[in-house]
Design a protein that fits this description.
- There is one protein chain.
- It is built from 4 helices and 5 strands.
- With 155 residues, it is of the alpha/beta class.
- It has 3 domains: 2-84, Signal recognition particle alu RNA binding heterodimer, srp9/1; 89-123; 125-155.
- The chain has a 5-stranded mixed β-sheet.
- The protein starts with a strand and ends with a helix.
Length: 155
Amino acid sequence: MQSMTLEQLRTAREAGGVADVTLKGQGGAFFVQIITRNGSGAVLTKARSSEPRRFGNPAVALSVLRNVGITIGQFDASEWNPAEHAPVSGTQGRAEALRKAHRAAAYSKWLAAEIQDAMSDPRPNLSHNEVMTRMDADIAALATEQKPTERSVVG
């Protein structure tokens, strides 16, 4: 069986060279099988390799086919087993990577603004010992505020 990329499928469909398309379930994924007008068979492959394009969700495959202009075809789930579904890299993995990159960029922007604000603050710097003394006083004040509540709950 030959391989066909999405662009090749689009071109073949526009030229009237596609006779039939079957969305075939196999294992935990779906593949697109193409029959051309000259009778040869092909499988939809990834753009930059001859590896068959796997779809974990048949709705995504149908959407891809519709975008190419193929709206009628066959569906074969006889060999499909949803228990064998393996995570498929692609748009979901890429989307998660982009979300992480956006969060990291937003955090970096926030952190840079906080640092700039601290550097622009006209107040004099405090020594480590002065900061620790103030923190110890704040902690002691909070501890004394909580003790009456703790006693009333326990007692």
